[in-house]
Amino acid sequence: MTDRIGRIRPLLQEHDVQAILLTFLPDIRWACGFTGSNGLLIVQHDRADFFSDGRYAVQARRQVRGAEVHIPGYEILRHVAEGAFLDGVRRVAFQADHTTVAQWRDWQERFPAVEWVPVAGLLQRLVGRKEADEVARIRRAQAVTDAVFEHLLAVLRPGMTEQEVAAEIVYQHLQRGAEKMSFDPIVASGPNGALPHARPSDRRLAAGEMVVLDFGCFVDGYASDMTRTVAIGEPGEEARAVYALVRQAQEAAIEATRAGISSRALDAVARDRIEAGGYGEYFSHGLGHGVGLQIHEWPRLSYHVDDVLPAGATVTIEPGIYLPERFGVRIEDIIVLRDEGHENLTASPKDLLVL
Amino acid sequence: MTDRIGRIRPLLQEHDVQAILLTFLPDIRWACGFTGSNGLLIVQHDRADFFSDGRYAVQARRQVRGAEVHIPGYEILRHVAEGAFLDGVRRVAFQADHTTVAQWRDWQERFPAVEWVPVAGLLQRLVGRKEADEVARIRRAQAVTDAVFEHLLAVLRPGMTEQEVAAEIVYQHLQRGAEKMSFDPIVASGPNGALPHARPSDRRLAAGEMVVLDFGCFVDGYASDMTRTVAIGEPGEEARAVYALVRQAQEAAIEATRAGISSRALDAVARDRIEAGGYGEYFSHGLGHGVGLQIHEWPRLSYHVDDVLPAGATVTIEPGIYLPERFGVRIEDIIVLRDEGHENLTASPKDLLVL
Lengths: 355, 355
Prior knowledge:
The structure is a homodimer of 355-residue chains. Chain A has two domains: 4-127, Creatinase/prolidase N-terminal domain (Creatine Amidinohydrolase, Chain A, domain 1, 3-Layer(aba) Sandwich); 129-344, Creatine Amidinohydrolase. The first copy, chain A, has 355 residues and is of the alpha+beta class. Chain A has eleven helices and 19 strands. Helix content of chain A is 34%, strand content 22%. The longest helix of chain A has 24 residues, at 132-155.
């Protein structure tokens, strides 16, 4: 881990503040290594202080790098106030998109001399550029997910319910050392596949149907995320054509993925192909999203946003076509952006598998 | 489902506002029945309006009760502004503990004529009084969890890792129809049991050890939650004594559970027993918490808070003793408060099981 506290410090000047208060746990983990469920990190020019409660006394002292550890017990904020950690500080930047109004009002009451400066996406561009050891963890998480997909191909059969398949997906991940799933698996068969966020139901897989499988896990804190669409028996002509179109759009977008491209331009690569194929209105969501300590993080790949993507950004590329009441197809890989080109962390095959 | 929008309306007067804006999805589900992942509910004296996006057009119209459904597409807030839904409204109460500062600032910008009134715990006392059909769902979720515990007793053996046991717990819940786990299972063996929030590790269960098992699931949106502590082979004298003391404290607290008691008084019933037994300093957390559409909700049973508990409140009772580096014992049931007494929704046995 590089000196991440040091990489945060330039933000002090950028936002014209004397301190930055971090409350969002994935960002705190990124900044100082703490993995527990309660903590607060204050970064100033000449010091950095981490606070947690008694449950994490041993763990915090073992994990935290680059900040002094304080374990004040039940009331952390009172300790910050009484310990004079913010004495002389006039302006503090905080995470506007990860702080509730109730928390903010509590701070305002306890620190009446401080001006609290709300900043949305405070660390997103720092956290978004993954380092080699972070990519290695995402790769390990995706390797578990790839292995589970290979296992699934051997057990999927007509008559299983979507819920049974989802249970198998979860079990196989946990058996292979995943900490937990990175989101609830999607197993969407036949017409359910036309709902991009379908929940597994008691519907049984039937011969001739397409099945959308979307799942991932956490390994060592980092997430995997993959979608494959398979056919249970011969799927028919239009399903094959739609599959080929989604695959072509996805591979074209991956081909275009490199540092310096904008999120909107990358989305357009896939969207243009699908529109040219006549299914534009059925690609009803953005192209993808960043993946790391969170399953969904910056950057969002979408026609709504125009961020320039840096080297190290690690994103999903996941176009889909959803035909209401009929079926859906989505294909998703995780891609790391490099200065020249990209690397695909997903190993599972993309030929249409007919089981 | 009773007229829940109608039960919200008295809050308009209580907070001296013309509208209430709900953004927290479990509370929105409670109020109008919507189960999707994006929505907004505005309650006024003479109308109630629900907003979501295109993914939920069909689902929202099928599910929502007591409010008019609007599907404006991508930008919900713009639609609320342009649709004049808040015209003439001067003050709006919102959920201060479930709204980010970034959201609040967005509202302030879009509705400059509105005064936004932050209220923490806005619906908690309404949501906290469970109706019969809600208790029935918690009972069904707990029945799944009880069945999984019974299954576990047959498969637990020395040599299994904590992670393997956790994988089995998740798999068995999903196989029995649980929608998902209500939290990541805790499987804490030997000294790991002394950490109240231990994560399953690759540590193997060994003969003579106590194992803390804490897990639950969601069925039809409602959560279960149970802890049992079992012994893998003969556990030794102090472990037996500590187990007996925790059980005595837990059963005494359940015995005292009824509408009208305060959270602090109920916590004290268990805490006094454990202190009298000489282990007071090792009961390092509160007695329990409300359970419903969320795994942790109002009321908190703790010496820090002094809420009077109403009939219908559904809470966990879960004292524990944690001996650092040695072992832990926790026993947890879900209890519904009645005007006279209570009902225990948990069926799993509480005799010390030596496997």
